[in-house]
Design a protein that fits this description.
The complex is a heterodimer of chains A (494) and B (320). Chain A is α/β, with parallel strands linked by helices and 494 residues long. In chain A, 33% of the residues lie in helices and 26% in strands. In chain A, the strands form six sheets. Chain A has a six-stranded mixed sheet, sandwiched between helices. The longest helix of chain A has 16 residues. With 320 residues, chain B is mainly α. Chain B has a two-stranded antiparallel ribbon. Chain B is globular and about 55 Å long. Classes of the chains: A alpha/beta (494), B mainly alpha (320).
Chain lengths: 494, 320
């Protein structure tokens, strides 16, 4: 063959977001017809890379080619026309329409001005049959299982004559038998000559299906190997890579007796989850996205109902049904999603900071202006919030400052137990350090912290012990002495 | 910094816009409408406005939480014939009023129940309530006016305290209480907070349920009160009373700068919004503009007011 063996060639791709390097000089070549796995921790740059390829982002530097065409001025439309398809973890189908209507949406076959239902049905059925699956083209998408919906997405992609398909965590919502089916579909795609970029946290899948594997870490290309030439421990080493340095302030006070004991918490998302948190301790909660960590935290905080389980605070059984109960018992939750769950984005810093502790600055329901102002300035200053006035709207602040406003709000409640869900997500390095220091200061004052994080170094650097969750259940507990990133990943993945 | 200053400037312009409109309208009608610019007429306007103004306080709170209550007009009708029937049946006027106020509160709480617990959009809940209450008003009255109650009852709608009509005093009290509640209490903060971000409010320990029930309950109760003021003014219980009033009330609140997307709005400016509506209606009546045309004008005003709100929001979010 004289044409290039590589369908996709990335050369020195760099992507910078306001000072943060999401991709740092990544070069990568994908061979025609291979299944190429892409792995890395959260934040390694996988999704940015996908977005560059699909045209959602333009690279800051670097160039790339697809199917021998220069793609430097890529856009979603150009990438689609060139034959690049994507299956995201969240499916993009219209649930009220049928399978056939979804597949032909925007490219309906017509006879004159009327829809040619017969031909569309026939074409649709043929494409589905070709993949060796059975889905009724006339079924409503909302009546299908997630796995079947995924097949519809794949058929929709194939119907566009794609040459290259990106699959982003396609197996996350699937059961084991559904995964087997999906893999046979993927192999049929490869047999059709379609190149696949396969992204998954589940390493065993990568060994099962991929021809080659590329590891990204901190936005950099670490290595590309033949899957057959590597094994799981080696892959994990490449993913983790870095030394965990002195980025994290050290503990200065001893750990006290248990303050929070949760036993057997169960609801739709979690199963029989227990934990014990001590006074002055930082307990880490590790796991992959979707493992049930946030759901467990929300259960403890009363944000979601619990069907079974007990909670003891300082040895006494308490019942927490609502966030209000939790705050009364001095438990606070700093949510993962600041904008939709943490902040009143259209309100000022002052409004936000005092919002959860209005009771303590009110008398008989009336807000005491002086007390309020004192609380706002005390906790805004404690958090070093940078703003030109305390009335500045939360939406005008940077991510780091927004997070500080949320933290100030929770400090003002004087909670003894604080749950941090991804406390440093989307925050620059400087603000991260401030937040680590704050967490250390809080435990030194005798407060206790439960920290959920997907950033392994942060989890290992800050936590005294680490609980690991997978599929809604606790799968292990590691103490700070014997914790290694590898052992967390072992417990978190299947 | 620069954008913040610009935003501030824009905000202050839109802050005064409603007062400018009020002055302009007053000047316009003073010139074109005979008998407009007189003390008697000004008190007249205030007295007319009072019937809208009383429920507008509840409506303001409901809209700030991000909701709406379009059943207030029907509530006024039901309260009007309800109170009239109770008095005709021989009940003491004070007792009759108390009963109607409690029923108004319960109806409002039911609106809150279906909105909060069942999760139906408030527009739909109160649309249903609007039809039910109007139907009940006709059922209670048998479709006919109800009249013949103690002369003392007319004081509520027709009486004066010194030079000031009693309805105006009632409205002023409602606004004072509304102002203090929204501006000075933690409850008021929660009203704004829930409208701004309901989930974040819940996760901050706010009892969203309590606030939602309270604002809808208050809105229902104030609508019942307004219905009785109207009853006293016309001195007969009309099943049609308060028809389409929800429209004027919502228009006044939105004119006053309360955002229909929730979380924003000052009750002091709602007073200006009410006066704009009052001046407009009064002026049109004095100019002998037929009711049909008035409706067209009112609808146009509502659309304009909401457009202004939406556009200023868009502009603000673009600037930022």
């Amino acid at each position: 063959m004289t044409t290039n063996d590589n369908i996709l060639a990335l050369k020195h791709i760099t992507k910078r977001f306001s000072g943060v390097l999401a991709l740092d000089d990544v070069s990568l070549e994908l061979r025609r017809g291979e299944i190429h796995a892409l792995v890395g921790e959260n934040g390694a740059g996988k999704s940015t890379l996908i977005k560059v390829i699909t045209g959602a982002h333009l690279p800051t530097f670097g160039e790339w080619t697809f199917d021998d065409k220069e793609m430097t001025n890529n856009s979603p439309a150009i990438s689609k026309a060139a034959g690049i398809g994507v299956i995201y973890q969240e499916l993009n189908l219209m649930p009220q329409l049928t399978v056939r209507e979804n597949i032909f949406y925007g490219k309906e076959i017509k006879k004159g001005i009327f829809l040619d239902e017969k031909n569309m049905y026939r074409d649709c059925l043929k494409m589905i049959d070709d993949l060796g699956v059975s889905v009724d083209p006339n079924a409503l998408v909302r009546d299908l299982s997630i796995a079947e919906q995924q097949v519809v997405e794949i058929v929709k992609a194939i119907s566009e004559d794609i040459k290259f398909l990106i699959m982003d965590e396609p197996t996350a919502p699937l059961t084991n038998t559904e995964i087997d089916k999906l893999f046979s579909v993927v192999e049929k795609l490869r047999a059709k000559g379609i190149t696949i970029l396969y992204i998954s946290h589940r390493l065993e899948e990568i060994f099962r299906i991929s021809d080659r594997v590329t590891v990204l870490r901190d936005g950099r290309h670490v290595i590309t190997m033949n899957t057959a030439d590597t094994d799981r421990p080696m892959l994990i080493k490449h993913m983790v890579g870095r030394e965990i340095g002195q980025e994290y302030p050290k503990r200065t006070t001893p750990i006290g007796p248990p303050v929070l004991e949760v036993e057997g918490y169960t609801n739709a998302a979690i199963h029989d989850c227990s934990l014990t948190l001590h006074k002055g301790e930082i307990l880490g909660l590790a796991g992959l996205v979707g493992a049930g960590r946030t759901e467990f935290a929300r259960g403890i905080f009363g944000a979601d109902p619990i069907s079974r389980g007990t909670m003891r605070l300082n040895g006494e059984i308490v019942e927490i049904r609502t966030p209000k109960d939790a705050i009364r018992h001095r438990i606070g939750l700093i949510t993962e999603d600041r904008k939709s769950q943490g902040l009143l984005i259209n309100k000022g810093i002052d409004f936000n900071v005092v919002y959860a502790s209005l009771k303590s600055v009110s008398r008989a329901g009336f807000v005491q202006k002086k007390k309020e102002a004192a609380t706002v300035s005390r906790f805004s200053e404690a958090m070093h919030i940078k703003a030109h006035s305390s009335a500045q709207l939360a939406k005008t602040l940077s991510g780091g400052n927004q997070q500080k406003v949320v933290l100030a709000k929770w400090l003002a409640t004087q909670c003894d137990i604080l749950i941090f869900d991804e406390p440093t997500r989307g925050i620059d390095v400087g603000a991260k350090r401030e937040i680590y220091q704050l967490m250390r200061d809080l435990v030194s004052e005798g407060k206790s912290i439960l920290m959920i994080s997907s950033e392994m170094p942060e989890l290992i650097g800050m936590s005294d012990r680490i609980l690991v969750m997978r599929k809604g259940a606790i799968t292990g507990m590691l103490s700070s002495e014997d914790v290694k990133q590898e052992s967390i990943l072992e417990l978190a993945t299947e | 910094m620069d954008t913040a200053v610009k935003v501030k400037k824009q905000k202050s312009i839109s802050k005064y816009a409603i007062y400018i409109v009020l002055l302009a309208l007053t000047a316009f009608f003073s010139i074109v409408a005979e008998g407009f610019f007189t003390t008697t007429n000004f008190f007249n306007i205030l007295r007319q406005v009072a019937v809208y103004g009383i429920p507008a306080v509840g409506m303001t709170m409901v809209i700030i939480t991000g909701g709406i209550d379009i059943s207030v007009g029907s509530m006024m009708g039901a309260a009007s014939v309800g109170c009239a029937s109770l008095m005709v049946a021989g009940l003491n006027p004070i007792l009759a009023m108390l009963i109607v106020l409690i029923v108004g509160l319960i109806v409002g709480l039911l609106n809150g129940f279906f909105t909060y617990e069942v999760g139906i959009p408030p527009m739909i809940v109160t649309l249903a309530a609007m039809s039910i209450l109007r139907g009940l008003a006709y059922i209670i009255s048998g479709g006919l006016p109800v009249y013949g109650f103690p002369a003392s009852f007319t004081a509520l709608g027709q009486g004066y305290l010194g030079p000031i009509p009693i309805p105006v005093i009632i409205m002023a009290i409602c606004f004072a209480v509304g102002y203090i509640t929204l501006e000075k209490t933690s409850f008021g903060r929660y009203v704004y907070g829930i409208g701004s971000n309901r989930e974040a409010s819940r996760l901050s320990g706010v009892s969203v349920r309590k606030v939602m029930y309270s604002v809808y309950g208050l809105c229902g109760m104030l609508a019942a009160l307004a219905g009785m003021v109207l009853l006293s003014r016309v001195n007969s219980g009309q099943p049609k009373a308060g028809e389409m009033y929800e429209m004027d009330i919502i228009t006044a609140v939105v004119l006053g700068g309360v955002s229909t997307t929730g979380g924003e709005g000052k009750i002091t400016r709602v007073i200006a919004g009410l006066l704009v509506m009052g001046v407009l209606l009064n002026g049109m009546i004095l100019m002998n503009i037929p009711d049909y045309y008035q409706r067209v004008v009112k609808g146009a005003v509502l659309l304009l007011a909401i457009s202004a709100d939406m556009m200023s929001q868009k502009r603000l979010s673009k600037k930022i």
